[in-house]
Amino acid sequence: MTITPTTSRLSRRHFAGLGAAGTAALLAACGRSEEDKSGSSAAAEPVAEGPATGSLTVWAMGAEGEALPELLKGFEEENPDVSIKVTPIPWDSAHDKFTSAIAAGTAPDVAQVGSTWMAEFVGLNALEPTPDLLETDDYFPGALDSVTVDDVVYGVPWYVETRLVFYRKDIAEQVGVTEPPTDWEGLFEMARALQGGPDGTWGIALQPGGDGSWQTVLPLCWSNGGDVVSEDGGEFTFETSQNEEALAYYQSYFTEGISDPSPAEGTTEQDFVSGAVPMFISGPWMMAAVEDLGGEGFADKYGVFVMPEKESSASFLGGANIGVFQSTKNRDGAWKLVEYLSRPEVQVEWFTQVTDLPALQSAWEDEAVSANEKFEAFRTQLQSAFAPPTIATWEQVAARFDAQIEQVCKQDLAPKDALATTQSEAQGIGTGGLTCPPSR
């Protein structure tokens, strides 16, 4: 087998997805009635036994796209009659590239798919349902939710990430904080206390609106018993007392002067290492970033802890999935490749290469993952981490929510008014429900 990577700008993005620009024309071209919404629920066809053969095209984003050929050497040994071409794609152009390819019928056989794109691509009838070849019982619940649309599983989770609170343990000890907080009030008071440390300027780095800020605010809504979409995905539920309380809590960090309403871009790691901002909320990739900057011994100076509770502890579940496109000419080979990437030992190998956290819970038993206690904290949080709504229009709705969060944080807009505007705009956008005829 020959694995041929094509060149592309290396760009690592640790969010679940991007804006949905460029899909409107495609969606408008093919209608889907309410009665047809569950039409994708037909059982997946079985996959033929035996080694994979033929050619396969694979798209993957950023660092994953660059590193994937090395991982696929094991698949090459098992399937010597397969030729694979891996194309790395920058995250910032990936969404539009996918939707253009779907419209043109030139989508790859297999691809990494941002978790917030799943419902949209299913609505375009672009992804295949997952066959019985792949078991799904071992995935983190939130990760499995991210590939489930209308009770049908499409593809599988590939890797996961969630967000924890990072804090400077050494500074916390200096100001008399000996244990991480467990509730909202405790987190607020800890941030205020650490702000008073020897080098403190701000207590905690929080995003004051803008692209992706919903990924921190929405978990607070979940923690408080709220949500933004009804259980059946049919209507938006931004305007609730639980969501208003959550957004007001987030706003308080800015109105009380604990978080910077105008932070300089790309300074989180530097400010954390210097002690100027000794707390932030982020994902596992920040471990390497702060340790590299802080130098030898810095790993012992900071800790991580799960998101504090209101009614419960909740966090955002991101990462990426792997899917097979309906337009594939090598369906059996494509699903065999997905099965290979879904083995626990292969996910552990992938973790050692690029530190993407395994989506399979059994893979976390391997010492390569479990030896670091900070990763164990991420594992704990993954049990109560949730994927964003699996509706086709979520990216568009999220952008409107981001804009209102910015008004709340920077302009002191009342959370109730922000949620009312978001609700109105979301209702205008709708939840989706358009699809194209089957491609084959």
What features would you describe in this structure?
The protein has 440 residues and is an alpha/beta fold. The chain has two domains: 220 residues, 3-Layer(aba) Sandwich (D-Maltodextrin-Binding Protein, domain 2); 192 residues, Periplasmic binding protein-like II (D-Maltodextrin-Binding Protein, domain 2, 3-Layer(aba) Sandwich), CATH 3.40.190. It is 40% helix and 14% strand. The strands form three sheets. Strands 1, 2, 3, 4, 7, 11, 12 and 13 form an eight-stranded mixed β-sheet that branches. A three-stranded antiparallel β-sheet has the order 9-8-10. A hairpin with a 2-residue loop joins strand 5 and strand 6. Helix 10 crosses helix 17 and helix 11 crosses helix 12. This is ABC transporter substrate-binding protein.
TL;DR?
This protein has about 450 residues and is α/β, with parallel strands linked by helices.
List the helices and strands and how they pair.
Blueprint: E1 3-5, H1 24-28, E2 54-61, H2 62-71, H3 73-78, E3 82-89, H4 91-104, E4 110-114, H5 118-123, H6 141-145, E5 148-149, E6 152-153, E7 156-162, E8 164-168, H7 169-174, H8 184-195, H9 214-223, H10 241-255, H11 268-274, E9 279-282, H12 285-294, E10 302-305, E11 315-324, H13 331-341, H14 344-354, E12 357-358, H15 367-370, H16 373-382, E13 385-386, H17 394-411, H18 415-429
Parallel strand pairs: 1-3, 2-3, 2-4, 11-13
Antiparallel strand pairs: 4-11, 5-6, 7-11, 7-12, 8-9, 8-10
Helix pairs in contact: 2-14, 9-10, 10-17, 11-12, 17-18
